[in-house]
Amino acid sequence: MIDRVISGNKICTPEGIRPAVVLIKDGLIADVRSELPTNLIGNVIDIGDSILMSGVIDPHVHINEPGRTDWEGFNTATRAAITGGLTTLVDMPLNSSPVTTTAAAFDQKLAATNGQLHTNCGLWGGLVPGNTDDIDRLIQKGVLGFKAFLTHSGIDDFPNVTEADLRKAMPIIARHGLPLLVHCELSTDEKLASGDPQSYQNYLSSRPREWEDKAIAMMIGLCEEYNCRTHIVHLSSANSIEPIAKAKQKGLPLTVETAQHYLFFTAETIQDGQTQFKCAPPIREKANNELLWTALGDGIIDFVATDHSPAPPDLKQMQSGDFMNAWGGIASLQLALPVLWTAARQRGFTVTDIARWLSEKPAQLAGLAQRKGQIAKGYDADLVVWNPEKTFTVAADSLQHKHKMTPYLNEALYGVVEQTYLVGKLVFENGRFVGLDEGKFINHRAVRRYDTENTEF
């Protein structure tokens, strides 16, 4: 017997948005039909003209637990997630303490999730100098891939790798078919900015596009040499779009993400002292960011992820406004969907574009493409119901993040999340939590397509 049925006029399927009926059984999408079966017995929910979309997947989130739980934590991050329609997160190996670079650290992080997973969550392993021998052990534990920095990460316990380190690690990672995610900035010893530390332009000058461009060029070469799945995180330099496009045309296993803040904000509008906007790489000029939009629309950039990286107000230097010493990270997890939709709709993009950028393509990076990211038969019933025409203004008291400081405060956004489902269970509805602790830990061995051929109604 079917457990739940969702009927609506705007169901976002791989074939497009259409009126449909989604049948859910045992946490899976048992079928997607044009009309209700005549012999159906089950709970039917009519969402009218709201959108039903596969739940948002964010593979770039810093949850910071254990060790720096005063920055965020699994409880607050995953509450924020289901409030925003995010049904799967992948946690970065920093800025927790210990960082996830060993099997023992993995076990500590997994233990910290107990009773606190309100959405699904997987883990990336960390690649740092000297931990090549830990790669296989972390894969056995279930990491979905690995993350490396090419410049200082912001914390000393997650040092950046060199090209020599990558040459040792990439053949191992490639053998397992997992992705290597890379923060692409190759910094120099030259001091590129001086003067007023409150000046945003001064900070922008201190991390030029050339840092990204050199790093990306190096990673394209290594990707080709080792045939290792390589993923460029939070692209901000439009200069690198052309070499990325050429690499993809050659068939290299290269993927790219950008972040909402690079698409929503521009350097010209950031005032001095507004350290809530500080991130690395920095938010660049309008002309640059418009080129990112074009690349996203053309499929050169594969998807969008938040790089949610919160920190307490003192670390963000909110009182001093000191960009040079402030923590570089933007809190935005709960707002992933409405922020992107608000900016995208102004440029003529559609809900199907949003579904591709926030659900389908991120699932592919994490190795979940046969299980999550689409409303199709056999997929997990991780779903979000949202109204693309409703608006709201971002207020601190509506945010579930541990720290409410975000550059999106007081922004008027389109796209109100009305319901979130995890494996067919309603967990969030119209501003209130209906079910908590329903999330599951995801590892790379749990990726499989379910058999629904013999489902009876």
TrEMBL record:
Pathway: Nitrogen metabolism; (S)-allantoin degradation; allantoate from (S)-allantoin: step 1/1. Transmembrane segments: none annotated. Its EC number is 3.5.2.5. Keywords: Hydrolase, Metal-binding, Zinc. It holds the Pfam family Amidohydro_1. The keyword Zinc applies. One of its GO terms (biological process) is purine nucleobase catabolic process. Its cofactor is Zn(2+). One of its GO terms (molecular function) is allantoinase activity. Catalyzes the reversible cyclization of carbamoyl aspartate to dihydroorotate. This is allantoinase. It comes from Spirosoma telluris.
